[in-house]
Automatic annotation (TrEMBL):
Any Gene Ontology CC annotation: cell surface
Bias kind Basic and acidic residues: ranges: 11-21
Segments passing through the bilayer: 49-74
PANTHER family in the record: SMALL INTEGRAL MEMBRANE PROTEIN 1
Annotated signal peptide: none
Keyword flag rRNA-binding: no
UniProt-listed Pfam families: DUF4731 (PF15875)
Annotated protein name in UniProt: Small integral membrane protein 1 (Vel blood group)
GO MF annotation list: protein homodimerization activity
Keywords noted in UniProt: Membrane, Transmembrane, Transmembrane helix
Region spans: Disordered: 1-37
Keyword Protein biosynthesis assigned: no
InterPro entries in the record: SMIM1
Length: 78
């Protein structure tokens, strides 16, 4: 019978006085949260590239419109 895999690994160096403990989430025991899945889907791959391009275009237009309106009121003739 083999021991079950754990997300915690403990190792002690022979010549060192420090112990090393590392915790890693295993994909089989824990499910990713909804936010993690959504961000992974929207930020990677072809869909991630499309989202970033659309976000950049939207940001450009927001800054352009704000600059236009601000310039209009600053340089408005009296």
């Amino acid at each position: 019978m083999q021991p079950q895999e754990s997300g915690v690994h403990y190792s002690r160096w022979e010549d060192s006085s420090r112990d090393e403990v590392s915790m890693a989430a295993t994909s089989g025991t824990e499910e990713a949260s909804c936010c993690d899945r959504t961000s992974r889907k929207l930020c990677t791959g072809k869909l991630g590239v499309a989202v970033k391009v659309l976000g950049g275009v939207a940001l450009f237009w927001v800054v352009f419109i704000l600059g236009y309106v601000t310039g209009y009121y600053v340089h408005k003739c009296k």
